[in-house]
Amino acid sequence: MLERVLSTRSAYVVRQIVRPLLAALAIGLLVLLSERLVRLLDITLGKKNSFTIVFEMLGYLIPHYLGLALPAAFFLGLLFGFNKLSKASEIDAFMASGVGLHQLTRPVLGLAVVFTAIGVLIFGYVQPHSRYAYRALVHTVKNVEIFYLAEEGVFMQAGSRTFILDKLSRKENRFERIFLFEDKGNKGSETISSSTGALVEVEGEKRPVLRLQRVHQLQVNGWPSPDKSKPLPQSRVAEFKSVDTPLGKVKAVFFRLRGNDEREMTLGELIERQNDPPKSSSLQDMKAELHRRIVSIVTILLLPILAIPFALGRRRGQRAYRFAVALILLIAYNEIIEQGALAVRVQQASPYIAMWLPFLALAAFAIWRYYRACFTLQSDGLEPVFDRITEFLRWCRRQVLDLSRQL
Prior knowledge:
alpha+beta; six-stranded antiparallel beta sheet; 6 strands; about 60% helix; about 15% strand
C-alpha cells in the first residue's frame, strides 16, 4: 500500500521506521496506562460496574498519554530504523548508487509533518475534551451513592454519615440490618437503625433513594455542654414502618461546564481568550499553556533531523552510547520545557526565554549535526571519546575478573 503513495525507496525507509515506532508506541501506552490502572482501581473498586468505569476512564486518558508516547515512539522508531539501515550497510549502498542521506530522509520529514498535524489534533483539541470527560467521570464516581461504597460488617464514612450494614446484595440492591449515624454539626445528630433496606430509583428524583423498612430513629437537637452549664439537648425517638431518604445532594450529581481552567480549553479557545482567562486561571497560566502546547507540537518536526545523526555510526564503533545520549537529550529537553512553563506560571518569566530559547537551541544543535551527517565527511567527535571510555571499562572488568579468580 505504501508503494502506491511513495516510491519503492521511500516506502522501504518508512517501513523500517514504522515497525519499531508501533512497537514502542504500544509498549509505552501499555506501561503508562498500567501505572494509572492501579490508582483507578482504588477509586472505583467496590462500585457498581467498576470494571466498566475503569476502562472508560482509561479511554479518556489515552489522548493524554498518546501526547507523551507518540513523539517518544517516533524518535525511537527513527533511531532503530536508521540504525538498522546503517548496520546492514544499506545506507552505504544507497549512497554508492547516488542517493544521499538527505534524500533518504525526505519521506521521514513528510512523516514528521503528518505526526505534527496529529499533534495539533491531540494537543489542541482532543486532550482538553478528554481531560474534562475524565474529571467529570471521576467526580461522578467519587460522589456515587453510599450503597456502592459499603462493605459487609465494616464502618464506612460518606460525608457526615457513618454507617454499617449486614448481608449486602449489590445484585438486588438490598441489605439487612443497617445502622446509620449522621453528624449535623451544631444542630445535633441523627441515628437510624433498620432491619432491611434497598436502594431504589424514584421517578423525578435525581438522587438515589434509600428505602428503609421497620425504622427506629433517635434525633438529638444539639450537643451536651462539656461543663454541664447548659441543660441537656432535647431528643426525639420515633418508629416508622417505611422511610425513603434521598442520598447526597442534587448539586453533587451535576458537573460543571468545560473550561474551568486552561488545560480544558482547546488551542483555538486559548488563542481567543488568552487575555480573558477563566476564574480558576490567570493570564500567566493561559500564556504558559498556550506556548507549551505550541512548542510541544513544533518539536515533532525536529525529531527526524535530531535522531538520524545519532542513529548512524561506524560499523565497528560503539553504537549503544548514541541511543543513550539521544534519549537523555530528549528527556532533558522535555523537562526544561515543563520547568519553563512552570516558571512562566509562577515566576512570570517570559515564555520566549523559558521555552522558545531551549527550542531554538535544540533546533540549532539538530540542524548542525544533520548537516554534518548529510553533507560532510567529518567523523563524529564523540566516537573516539566513547571508544576510549569503553576500552577502559573493559580493562576494569578484566581486572575485576582476574582478581576474583585469584581469590
